[in-house]
Design brief:
4 helices, 153 residues, single chain, alpha+beta, five-stranded mixed sheet
Amino acid sequence: MTELTIRPLEDADRPGWQDLWAQYNAFYGREGKTALAPEIVDEAWARLLSDAEPVHGLVAVRDGALMGLVHIVFHRNLLRVPDTCYLQDLFTVSAVRGEGIGRRLIEAVGERCRAHGVGDIYWHTHSGNDVARALYDRVATNTEFLVYRLKLD
């Protein structure tokens, strides 16, 4: 087994990324919904690869296979001068969970943020996602805030 590498998404990653993203969405019960509609997948991919977008993607790669992904969004923050980073999606293949890949992806996001002058990273997860929460409780502070969403369409 070769070393795990964390790197930005590349054009050739589309099939592997799409499979991981489908698994991520299925994990959260979104299979068959708009998150997986072809036009949404195409737009998400285009945004992730565009230098003009504040959205970025990193992948964990071992032996040429994608083992995990993370999507991040840099944006302004009215409470501090430096931009902030929203860690939107983090997912690892179930067979490799517990090997530290999620932590490595979070650390890579931190490195990228520091390189871009970004002041902090925040994210949310489902309250029942105990495996992820165990990691998150070790690497970050639980702010105890809840997420509300008002759908406009």
